[in-house]
Amino acid sequence: MKAAVFMGQEDVQVLNVPKPPIRADEVLIRVAYCGICGSDITAYKTGNYVVGLTIGHEFSGTIEKVGSKVENLTVGDKVTGCDVIPCGRCSFCLSGKPSLCESMEMPGVTINGAFAEFIKLPAWVVYKLPEKLSLLDASLIEPLACVLHAIELSSFKSSDSVLIQGAGPLGVLTLETLKKSGAGKIMVAEISDGRKKLAQDLGADIVIDPTEENLPVLIERQTNGLGVDVLFDTAGVPETLSQNFTLVRKGGEIMVVGITEESTPSDFFTVVLNELTIKGVYCGFNEFPSAIEMLSKGLISAGKIVTSVIELEEIDKKGFKPLMKPIDECKVVVRVGEG
Fold first, then answer.
1. pLDDT tens readout for residues 216-241
2. Which domains does the chain have, with CATH numbers?
3. Is the pTM of this model over 0.85?
């Protein structure tokens, strides 16, 4: 089968690899679509995946084969799979926090993933999809689950003022979800013209370009000098992360959703003085059913968020390389098989 294989820093190649055999408790999935995640781009830049790994984890497809002990899934079912396979035995799993599992496996990160014609997964982390949900739209389930996890972990409540740093896929999914959750004023900071327009189209109250406007001054003006109640940083770059401390009110909260491996200056004087809360967000797991429901009900504008669909053979040239620098694209999804 064909698969996009990580071969080192800035080197992803589509190669022929063996189709994975399945065990009694696993299913084999024929992949239809798989989205390119920001964490994939980071690994591409830094070279921090294991050479030979098939990457990709934001996927949808159909069941090709089921193991002898699988009862809840059948050949032909439309499905998606979690990007986390928890052990189910550690203290975090047993306390309902599988995204903190001490020995989790992660498709496309620690084990072979979904930029391939087939992926195998344990049946218990595979979800059957509603018939009305297209396989293309279903490629947004995993990032939406991450966003729902972030909101669940936050102190956000109806009528709160919010700043979202970044209007990439995670940013606009956060925007739409908060909008439907009754947020007061939602402000979005973004430098890309295309993404700024998308944030406006999806209902942001104010869209700010921090390269053209003074973001702290504008936030102060919009919040009567207080700062926002909750800030969601989905950009995951040092420039935004280091600025966040002065943008939230006293007692406010910063949710770090985007990932960066670069060193970031941190204003802990302001953290202490203003008694700020900073929380990291890692993956989603429990939120997969809610993400599936939201997309199947049309509560997320999937057709606007997915801005490009490319072929597997184009993944390096039209996917990873352009996404290494700021572009107007939002979500780039790879068509692996039939949708």
1. 999 999 999 999 999 999 998 888 99
2. 2-128+301-335 (3.90.180.10), 147-280 (3.40.50.720)
3. yes
